Amino acid sequence: MEMASEFLALLNPATGTGENLLSFILSLIWIAFLMVFFLYPSLGQRMQLGYMLRDLERKLQKLKNIKDEIQTITVDTVKREGSPESDLSKEIERLSEFFLIQPESMDPYGLVYKLEHILETGESVYESEVAKLVPNAPEARVKTLTNLFEILRGINTLYRVVRHYYLLGKKTSNIYLVLQIQMVLPQLIEIAESYRQAAVAFSKGQPIGDGVGVLVVAKLADGLEKTRYEIAKDTIVQELELEKRRVYIVRAQGPGGTVGRPGEAVKRLVESLSEQPKLIVTIDAALKLEGEETGKIAEGVGVAIGGPGVDKYKIEELAKSRNIPLHAFVIFQSITEAITPMRESIAKAADVVLEKVRKLILEKAGEGDVVVIAGVGNTVGVGA
């Protein structure tokens, strides 16, 4: 009876205990929730899984919107350069799912050259397929458009993989699988945004951050070039004289979007010279860490070439067999800055690296000595 009278007192507005009543009701609800979760622990997990799946669905839709935007940019660019009348959607979709199969690595002997063969074949086939869509476009433009298709292929693969794990987690109600994809999705969205900006850059043929290595050696050769010739596919050699030192510059031939064959080019060049180079210098962009400044420069020893490793391997093997010192300069930037229009800070860093390279040549090589310098990077928008 006492408890009933107390409860009635709580309900009486004249007592001024409305706040106590609200607290009492909230406490009952909270206790009820605790009892439900204690007796049925799977219920809480299912509620958490539902929330995570809804969050993933929103982010997956954002990823799809980015993919669709890149596809629209690709279609519009190809129509502008090629046949505006024809429907290219099926051809573009086919090229967006083009793939390369890695060589068998169970027996590692000769793996580098097998990989090189597959990469070169894939590049050649893909480029020829893009050329069919824009038959009147110049070769340099075809190479840039090939890069644009590779961006579309990359975002298409990224979207399909994320969608796969989302649907698999939803189908199996596997909270741990969903949790893993949810944890990495912010970084994947950031990469997708980078792809979107890169698609705009390649559609317009603008220089990108990754081309800073090529920009440095192009500046070095400016006004000093004596001879120029193609030494490997899409790769040229520029010979010049710098204070009585013979300098050979290796770089991809612009302004089309290509990285050329820097490893094969350096190998052929050194083997063709009558005098052994005093040193080999490579210049390339490098991925910065969070908190580091864009355009920061670092120098060290080794071969500054990214990618699958074929070109790097060839230069390392050559330098080891001939005992040639390897020097490297890198310009730090984020993955977004590497594939989007070149920032002012990166362009300014190229001038600083140029002076460092000149100083290195004068310090390490004497009069009459030979130096090989490879500017590594994508030459889209950088003059031939």
Structure description:
With 384 residues, the protein is of the alpha/beta class. The protein has 2 domains: 43-204, no CATH class; 209-375, Rossmann fold (3-Layer(aba) Sandwich), CATH 3.40.50.1470. 59% of the residues lie in helices and 14% in strands. The protein has 12 helices and 7 strands. Strands 1-2-3-7-4-6-5 form a 7-stranded mixed β-sheet. Helix 3 packs antiparallel against helix 6. The longest helix has 41 residues, at 41-81. The model has no long low-confidence stretch (mean pLDDT 88).
Low-confidence stretches are none
Count the E strands.
7
Major β-sheet strand ordering = 1-2-3-7-4-6-5
Mass-distribution shape: elongated
CATH topology of the largest domain: Rossmann fold
Total discrete domains: 2
- Separation of termini? 97 Å
CATH architecture of the largest domain: 3-Layer(aba) Sandwich
What's the helical proportion of residues? Answer: 55-70%
Question: What order do the SSEs take from the amino end to the carboxyl end, as H and E?
Answer: HHHHHHHHEEEHEEHEHHE
Please name the fourth-level CATH homologous superfamily of the largest domain.
Peptidyl-tRNA hydrolase
Mean pLDDT: 88
Number of helices: 12
What is the structural class? alpha/beta
Estimated share of beta-strand residues: 5-15%
